[in-house]
TrEMBL record:
It comes from Candidatus Fimenecus excrementigallinarum. The lineage of its organism: Bacteria, Bacillati, Bacillota, Clostridia, Candidatus Fimenecus. GO terms for cellular component: cytoplasm. The gene is murA. This is UDP-N-acetylglucosamine 1-carboxyvinyltransferase. The active site is at C117 (proton donor). Pfam families: EPSP_synthase.
Length: 431
């Protein structure tokens, strides 16, 4: 097993380049199942969720070429099976996009239930509601497989009872080749929804309105191959912005779409940071203790839940009291316990946290409970006094490409260490 050993107290300075968006690529890779030719996709991040999704596609019969480090060429013409029993589906949430893509291609799908970060209950009732509205029969099998039969898929209106990224994407995938008009109302508006729509349209689909709460999809008979480049990762960018501010640093975060970062930028400015926007970069500077502020997570364009743990960690160092309300997930404050071990004064009550800022955090042994909690632990460790050891780093590597190298280039002192072996070795040497 590996852990990160972080010596805190160093300002982050310099430049960092953001990779392709995890939550876009994990929808776009399954969407290639709908194409009748090769899709060349650029700006692919090297993260373990992508590795898992590519492995699943390969086990289904897809041919995948890697012409360079950030590009994949995917040929799904030889995929014959509509069944995905692979254990890997349980490693990531996005494996449920295979359901929408497979029913779009084969009119049927049997896919093992997805996994992903534990953030409270993660129902898929809205996905099922959408598939059923298009004429599918959905059965949840006892062996945790979702079985969908859709011999005559047909466009229809789908009103989502909750704004769901996953359900919006899955209904888009299922509807894109269904005859007639599908209208998704109360759709999610996240940047990755727009990226998927752009990808599908590049393949010849007719998807309009993505980025608003009404998406209209007119089914087409065929989708061809295409060349496409994934958008930059909004949350990776936001994480480096907050890390810069939390360490009182000065960082130029490059290869971003500043519009996607507006809610994060606004809150950083409210807390006293300086944020300069350029065409494809933002520069974050902070040279004093942050001021307190409140945040409430909301679907896009509100403050993203996927930035909540990182921003709350930053607020642990603020002057005064901040209140953080989580309105998307029932259980996204598990990391607070780790921050308390570092001296943070954060108290969770249901879906909100009250944070009394302290002047400094102190290094401690901590754990990455999930992907964004892990990013928060990195920020806490880098801004703390002393050494922190972060375990369960595999969660962080699901969504942050080359995180150690990127942070080191900004001046962080961070090492990847095997344990228990190297620790025991160190103790033997010391003894
Ligand atoms: C996506 O998850 C992201 N994952 C999550 O990012 C992100 O936190 C979330 O959207 C919200 O932005 C991927 O894109 C792979 P939802 P998803 O469906 O699609 C309820 C990260 O750290 N709901 O928008 O699973 C649900 O319980 C990850 O990168 C239903 O009630 O989220 C939640 O309260 C973590 N029924 C709310 O909707 C449903 O059928 C939003 O969930 C579906 C969802």
């Amino acid at each position: 097993m590996e852990k990160f050993v972080v010596t805190g107290g160093r300002r982050l300075t310099g430049e960092v380049s953001v990779s392709g968006a995890k939550n876009a690529v994990v929808a776009i890779l399954p969407a290639t199942i709908l194409a009748e030719d090769v899709c060349r996709i650029e700006n692919i991040p090297n993260i373990s969720d992508v590795t898992a999704m590519v492995k699943i596609l390969k086990t289904m019969g897809a041919q995948v070429r890697v012409p360079n480090r950030t590009t994949l060429e995917i040929d799904t013409r030889h995929v014959r099976s509509f069944v995905v029993e692979h254990e890997l589906t349980r490693q990531l949430r996005a494996s449920y996009y295979l359901i929408g893509a497979l029913i779009g291609r084969f009119s049927r799908a049997r896919v093992a239930m997805p996994g992903g970060c534990y953030l409270g209950l993660r129902p898929i009732d809205q996905h099922i509601k959408g598939f059923e509205a298009l004429g599918a029969d959905v059965t949840m099998e006892e062996n945790a497989m979702v079985h969908v039969e859709a011999p005559a898929l047909m466009g229809n209106s789908v009103y989502l009872d909750v704004v769901s990224v996953g359900a919006t994407i899955n209904v888009m995938l299922a509807a894109v080749k269904a005859p007639g008009l599908t209208v998704i109302e109360n759709a999610a508006k996240e940047p990755h929804i727009v990226d998927l729509a752009n990808f599908l349209n590049t393949m010849g689909a007719d998807v309009r309105g993505a980025g608003t709460d009404v998406i209209k999809i007119r089914g087409v008979k065929r989708l061809h191959g295409c060349e496409y480049s994934i958008i930059p990762d909004q949350i990776e960018a936001g994480t480096y912005m907050v890390a810069a501010a939390a360490t009182r640093g000065d960082v130029l975060v490059k290869n971003v779409i500043p519009k996607h970062l507006e809610s994060i930028t606004a809150k950083l400015i409210e807390a006293g940071a300086t944020v300069e926007e350029y065409d494809e970069a933002v520069r974050v500077k902070m040279d004093c203790r942050p001021g307190h502020c409140n945040i409430k997570t909301m679907p896009h364009p509100g403050f993203p839940t996927d930035m909540q743990p990182q921003f709350s960690t930053f607020l642990c160092l603020a002057k005064g009291t901040s209140i953080v309300s989580e309105s998307v997930w029932d259980n996204r404050f598990r990391y607070a316990e780790q921050l308390q071990r570092m001296g943070a004064n954060i108290h969770v009550n249901g879906k909100s946290a009250v944070i009394e800022g302290v002047e400094t955090l102190k290094g401690a042994p901590i754990r990455a409970d999930d992907l964004r909690a892990g990013a928060a632990m990195l920020i806490a460790a880098m801004s703390a006094k002393g050494v922190s050891e972060i375990e369960e780093i595999q969660h962080i590597e699901r969504g942050y490409e080359n995180v150690v190298e990127k942070l080191r280039a900004l001046g962080a002192k961070i090492e990847r260490r095997n344990f228990p072996d190297e620790d025991e070795d160190a103790q033997r040497t010391a003894g």
